[in-house]
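Please review this pair:
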Amino acid sequence: MDQSAQAVIAAAASFFVVTILVGLIVLICKGYKTPRSHHHQSRSRNRNRNRTAPNPTLTNLNSITISDVSASFDPSLDRISMPDLITATRNFSSDGVIGDGSFGLVYKARLSNGVTVAVKKLSKDAFQGLREFRAEMETLGKEKIRHPNLVKILGYCVSGDDRILIYEFVEKGCLDQWIHDTCFSGSSASCRAPLSWDTRVRIVKGVARGLAFLHNLETPIIHRDIKGSNVLLDKDFEAHIADFGLARRVEASHSHVSTQVAGTMGYMPPEYKDGVTAATVSADVYSFGILMIEVATGRRPNWPIKTEDGNLVGLAEWARRVVEEGRHAVEIIDMSVAREGLREEEVREFLRVAFCCIKEKARERPLMVEVVEILNQLSSS
């Protein structure tokens, strides 16, 4: 065999031996790493399991995907579960809908323990539903905030993609219905009696007290959607502010945080048109002032009104013109309100407060504590 053939055979043999040796080394190394790797993965799975374990804290609720986690904030509810809520609402039947809050429907439900509650089932939209759930928990649930003029949150339930909030049931429904929807199904036999002037003033005072409380917490809360449909009335027609799905906390009194535009057309402050979209107490004050005019006139703030010269103006502008022209303020009061006992000076003072709240410049609007003080001087109960 010549030398060149021998060299080829030797090289091939060397390559074969080296390949076998490398393969053996790799197998040995894998053998040593496998137990350690398995142990590491096991510990990682345990940590992940701990992170997704049922824990009814506000932080963990933002990412919960497990089944049936709930908590009660009130002793009247000793247990809340999705099966109970499904039974109580007849599988969330449309017949039980009593309201349409931001990003969710509200149902009347009688729980197995006999307690009647309002159940809000939030939209399953990944962004809106989670955002509202977190907002309501951080405002009403996290610190169990209580005030006579705020709706009380009783608990929550999370099951899969469903997020449910449970509130006290407020008997008379929302203020919007009492102002604008006085009859049902076109039948005069199913009509509500119109709210008297004294009752309207009392309702407005209650909303003012609730807002003043929120704005003067150690960490103030801005509601951002004050309107008639977010004011619930109990059996005595006391006001309870509801629907905190758009609410935001601010870090210092009367300060603001940057955020997107929020609210309802007709109630939003003029600064929003200029791109100032911060959540501020003055924005809530503006919405409250619009609500005052709506309650007094019985007119919706987002519907234009034709003036005597044929022009269309907004509700606030129309009401202001009537008063500035020297006409009787009583002229703009809801026609369904009995005129007997209506006092011109009281109506004028009521509207003066409302006009202060809706001043064009936010810094010129009063604080809600000041509004409460002025309204308390009105003679109506």
Summary: The radius of gyration is 31 Å. The longest strand covers residues 104-110. The CA atoms of residues 176 and 229 lie 5 Å apart.
